[in-house]
Amino acid sequence: MNAWVQYLLPLISGKANVNPQSRDLALQLVERILSGPKARSILLNGAVRKGERLVPPSALDLLMRATFPATQIKATERFSAIYPTLKELALAGSPGTKTTKQASLQLLPSAVKALQESNLELSKEAADVFIWCLVQNPECYKQWEKVHLDNIDASVAVLRKLSDEWKEYLVKLSPPNTLKVTLKNLRAKNEQALSGAVDASNQAAIKEADKYCKVILGKCTRGSRLHQGWSFCAHGCSCCWFCCFPGHAVVGLEEAPFNSQQFPSVLLKHYTWRNLIPFQHLSSRALET
Question: In terms of C-beta distances under 8 Å and separation of at least 24 residues, what long-range contacts does 24-27 make, across chains too?
């Protein structure tokens, strides 16, 4: 696999004129490697060895462009089939490790470059890789701040994806403290840029970026409050944020069949005040049940 990534992949991707027969033979080889029943697990076990990646960041960039080209060719479908596994190999590793941090710093610039291109599918995938970099390495937030205004379209694409798919990324970015700091810094840069001489196209993009920054900051705040709400649970209810008053706990009840918009009127309709007791008065035994 390493030889294929190092020598054959560059020959069959990233070039305008590639011999179709050569590309077919190269793809046959990698397809055969990946077709084994235990191929994925074996490759993942050796995805990172002695600080070297089986699929380096530069290879992932080539694969991403071959899988999401501006104009599809016959081989695009075959690249799409192998891409998920090879991407998994490229991003393998524990968060915070030296090799993962290095990979994130190397991938971020290529993701920014891909985001700047007029290719919707490539942009979506590059935004996902960009956010992966943020999750793996806090230094990537600083890099984002540095390239924000010079690559405003890329920044807008990332912010839009974070906003639209916040529920998916909230867990990965939790706690979002570093993200909140970066968003505030981006807003400061936006304000400074808009106060100066900015052409109309950039002005619109900066305003859009600022709008998404504001939206995501609001979601970060609501997410923090939600986590605080769970601390009042005394009976294992999965809806504690909805069925508990601040400073109180509901005891001896099953899961509450209502949503947050109906709170507290439905709570009062279904349950009496005797079900609510001050949280600080709960015994340790009650908290364990």
Answer: 24/75, 27/75, 27/78, 27/79, 27/82
Q: Is residue 222 very low, low, confident or very high in pLDDT (cuts 50, 70, 90)? A: confident
- For the chain, the structural domain boundaries read 1-92, 94-230, 240-288
Rounded Cα gap, residues 110 and 255, in angstroms:
47
What residue has token string 């900051």?
217
Mean per-residue pLDDT for 38-65? 91
**Six-digit token pair at 177?**
């403290």
250 forms bridges with which residues in the sheet?
Answer: 276
CA proximity to 253, closest of 245, 244, 261: 244
CA-CA distance, 90 to 111, in Å (whole number)?
14
Tokens found for residue 288: 């364990």
- Amino acid at site 234: A
pTM listed for this prediction: 0.76
